[in-house]
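Quiz preparation item.
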């Protein structure tokens, strides 16, 4: 049994739709489906709403019940439950908090209602989202309509993350009022593509349909007296009972096999057994194909299984009866008469079986007379086959001895060569160590480990050489004052480079002044000093770079030079881990929040490191998607897209800023949320400011979140 959840913001038509359904599904006969209310809210709804539509000819008002925001029905056939249907009539504000833009304080204030609401949604395996056609027109000029569409997109984004939800559908309501609009756009699918291009891009295969809950209004704007709900019923049947053509083929095969069983009157017992087996397999295929869908065929399946059980029992009883029975006694056996009476409906078949088993007894008697002669022939043949087998076994054993000797010799010779090579490489490593040639030590020890992996003495020498080489490099780097904006690149293979920009040590004012427009309470301004410079990714990590390290692409908007998105904080940690393994000795990580804002400002003190539209992609110019990195102007240190395009994960736990001056801050030791910076393609200007802080749990992953890597002081 499956569960259907019907959702939609205020004004989407939930009330009228379910009112029409309540009229459609009245129990007319035992074989007709009907709706049964399953809680008090649904009972009150079915008693009041259809009467308002049909008798009073008035549109019903909102149906919220303060203690029961969920109205539940079951779709039944006789006493059998086929579907659970649940309409979630929660306030529009809760839909916005759950699926639209919101603040943490709003989530905390509505936590209990929000958890209850999402529990209903995630418990369904079919999700039907209603959207009034009036709400998708004039999106550019109507802020409410734009918010409604944005929340609807959020519902589908959420549904994609719920494994339990197997089917989704978008239903445009009030189709009777917008017949001309639907016709001009080429129907529901055309309206979906033209009016909602963002949703069409994200969900091109979404089932979309238009429905008129009632088919017309009179001159006063009330339901017509003779309105029809047939269109509504047709849509619900299409959503709730999508019968696969394969099931109908299975059912046809069952019927044809059953005809063969009932018409069987001649042939051997083996022939009849084959027919029964074919019928049994056909029924099993039909049952298997039907189980994932609604149980409309439940009675039919049960009937076929009973038939198969009777036929199988009949075959078992006949075999048991005839075992060891002579042909002369078989026809007069009393148990045989009882068996025929027990299966009176199959009497014509039993006469055929009597004759077949008599013939079988006579055949066995004749075989017994010939058994002695056949036994002598078998003894001679078995002796001949035994001699042939002995010759074959001796030949195989000889070949195996030769083969194993050759293999063992080659293994011994290879071992000798490897031992000699290890001795040469080990000597080279010791000479290189005495000369202070740490790269030579590393190369020689890697050669030894390729032959003798896991050797503790060699591993210790290699690690010591790596540490010494790194220390020597850091000492050399410390003596060199690298200018801000200096660049370098790491080779990820196949021509893919990870370009990095140098950010020197220094001090800056982190946060925003109280005079800055649209600032938040958690942007307290304070002085931060970073005592060590670092390398930061010239751009956000691209999909090309992500695939070179991870081998897959989780992004919604595909393009090799687009920023990778749809990655959680945990995904970014895995990327850095694999990147460090790929680049031996690497120490790549996410930037701290202080490092990110220091690099973003690049010496500036205003809300942005330049004019926003010149340096970043915010919702005002992004056209509802990400853009290739490096298209806007870089900041003063040569870093691109620090404002907008995608939000960027930072290493820190979220917490209030500390008071006073701080040196090399690394964020809180623990917390519930991670920090994101920079705004994104769907964020407005205030969310793209240098000081703006955004938080979410570390498992968040959607199309507005990406990252860039940093490397502590040293050459990448």
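Solution:
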């Amino acid at each position: 049994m499956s569960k259907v959840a019907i959702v939609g913001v205020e004004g989407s038509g939930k009330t009228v739709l379910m009112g029409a359904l309540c009229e459609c599904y009245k129990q007319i006969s035992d074989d007709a489906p009907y709706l049964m209310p399953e809680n008090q809210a649904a009972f009150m709804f079915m008693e009041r709403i259809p009467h308002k539509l049909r008798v009073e000819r008035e549109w019903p008002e909102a149906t919220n019940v303060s203690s029961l925001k969920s109205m539940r029905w079951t779709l039944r056939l006789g006493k059998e439950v086929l579907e659970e249907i649940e309409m979630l009539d929660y306030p529009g504000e809760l839909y916005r908090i759950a699926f639209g833009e919101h603040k943490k304080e709003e989530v905390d204030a509505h936590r209990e209602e929000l958890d209850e609401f999402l529990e209903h949604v995630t418990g369904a395996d079919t999700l039907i989202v209603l959207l009034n056609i009036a709400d998708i027109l004039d999106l550019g000029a109507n802020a409410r309509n734009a918010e409604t569409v944005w929340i609807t997109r959020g519902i589908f984004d959420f549904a994609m993350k719920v494994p339990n939800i197997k089917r989704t559908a978008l239903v445009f309501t009030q189709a009777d009022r917008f017949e001309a609009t639907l016709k001009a756009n080429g129907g529901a699918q055309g309206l979906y593509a033209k009016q909602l291009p963002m949703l069409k891009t994200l969900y091109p295969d979404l089932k979309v349909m238009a429905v008129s809950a009632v088919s017309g209004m009179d001159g006063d704007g009330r339901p017509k007296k003779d309105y029809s709900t047939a269109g509504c019923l047709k849509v619900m049947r299409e959503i709730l009972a999508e019968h696969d053509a394969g099931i109908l083929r299975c059912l046809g095969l069952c019927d044809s096999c059953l005809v063969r069983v009932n018409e069987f009157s001649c042939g051997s017992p083996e022939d009849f057994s084959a027919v029964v087996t074919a019928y049994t397999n056909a029924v099993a295929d039909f049952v298997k194909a039907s189980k994932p869908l609604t149980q409309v065929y439940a009675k039919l399946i049960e009937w076929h299984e009973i038939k198969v059980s009777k036929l199988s029992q009949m075959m078992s009883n006949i075999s048991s009866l005839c075992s060891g029975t002579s042909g002369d006694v078989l026809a007069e056996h009393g148990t045989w008469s009882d068996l025929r009476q027990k299966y009176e409906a199959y009497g014509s078949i039993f006469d055929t079986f009597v004759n077949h088993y008599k013939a079988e007894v006579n055949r066995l008697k004749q075989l017994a007379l010939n058994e002695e002669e056949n036994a002598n022939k078998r003894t001679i043949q078995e002796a001949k086959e035994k001699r042939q087998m002995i010759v074959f076994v001796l030949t195989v054993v000889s070949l195996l001895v030769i083969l194993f000797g050759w293999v063992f010799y080659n293994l011994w010779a290879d071992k000798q060569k490897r031992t000699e090579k290890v001795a040469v490489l080990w000597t080279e490593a010791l000479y290189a160590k005495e000369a202070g040639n740490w790269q030579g030590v590393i190369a020689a020890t890697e050669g030894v480990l390729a032959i003798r992996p896991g050797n503790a003495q060699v591993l210790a020498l290699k690690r010591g050489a790596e540490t010494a080489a790194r220390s020597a490099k850091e000492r050399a780097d410390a003596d060199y004052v690298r200018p801000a904006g200096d660049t370098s690149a790491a080779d990820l293979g196949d021509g893919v480079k990870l370009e990095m920009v140098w950010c020197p040590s220094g001090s800056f004012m982190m946060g925003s002044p109280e005079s800055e427009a649209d600032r938040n309470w958690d942007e307290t301004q304070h002085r931060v000093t970073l005592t060590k410079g670092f390398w930061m990714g010239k751009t956000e990590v691209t999909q090309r770079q992500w695939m070179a390290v991870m081998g897959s692409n989780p992004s919604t908007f595909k393009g090799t030079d687009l920023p990778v998105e749809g990655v959680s904080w945990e995904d970014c940690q895995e990327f850095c881990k694999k990147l460090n393994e790929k680049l031996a000795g690497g120490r790549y990580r996410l930037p701290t929040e202080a490092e990110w804002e220091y690099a973003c400002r690049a010496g500036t003190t205003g809300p942005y490191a330049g004019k926003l539209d010149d340096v970043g992609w915010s919702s005002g110019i992004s056209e509802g998607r990400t853009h290739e990195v490096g298209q806007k102007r870089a900041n003063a240190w040569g870093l691109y897209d620090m404002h907008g395009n995608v939000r960027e994960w930072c290493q820190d736990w979220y917490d209030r800023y500390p008071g006073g001056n701080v040196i090399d801050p690394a964020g809180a030791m623990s917390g519930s949320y991670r920090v994101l910076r920079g705004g994104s393609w769907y964020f407005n200007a205030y969310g793209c400011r240098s000081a703006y802080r955004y938080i979410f749990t570390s498992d968040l992953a959607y199309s507005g979140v990406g990252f860039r890597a940093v490397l502590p002081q040293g050459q990448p």
